[in-house]
Write the structure tokens for this entry.
Amino acid sequence: GENVEQHPSTLSVQEGDSAVIKCTYSDSASNYFPWYKQELGKRPQLIIDIRSNVGEKKDQRIAVTLNKTAKHFSLHITETQPEDSAVYFCAARIVMNRDDKIIFGKGTRLHILP
Amino acid sequence: NAGVTQTPKFQVLKTGQSMTLQCAQDMNHNSMYWYRQDPGMGLRLIYYSASEGTTDKGEVPNGYNVSRLNKREFSLRLESAAPSQTSVYFCASSSRTGLTDTQYFGPGTRLTVL
């Protein structure tokens, strides 16, 4: 079935360095790609999203890029800080049954090293 | 605004017991979802409801039933719990605006089946 692949599953970066998380999707009709952050013991929360009609979006230290031809999108975090330590989920809208739904990747656990 | 609320927060069941997880949202959203989260498996969609009066299966519906009681409430029922259903369950709601479809999650229910 339609799915979203996310890599890596775990990522450790030195504080101040950049982190990149990559996702691929299979449904060529997908047109919306959100990213969620989940801190330990908390609920997932949206941090940034991108629509298929743009190739890049930035919000302070985070940015997302989208390559529709290759069907992949990435999250970039610059100047990482301790509070960036969390699990990050990418997602894509896919068509399921009569509706389109958001399907999540398996997550990336990001560790920011002091 | 309470957002999305879930009850209970924690539950321990014995194999074969039944229970219902409750979810309510006060954001007037049309769509509601139930996910389960297992280590290394991300967020997997169990059932969703695109609007009041409709429900559909997601990726992992076996062993579960749902009821969209009204626009605010969406419940998940385990008729005969199994150890494989030990997980953290998240309810979410969303209201699509154009291509954007932000999901708001509840705090989660940690379920253990012995």
About this structure: The first strand of chain B starts at residue 4 and ends at 7. The two ends of chain B are 36 Å apart (CA to CA). The mean pLDDT of chain B is 93.
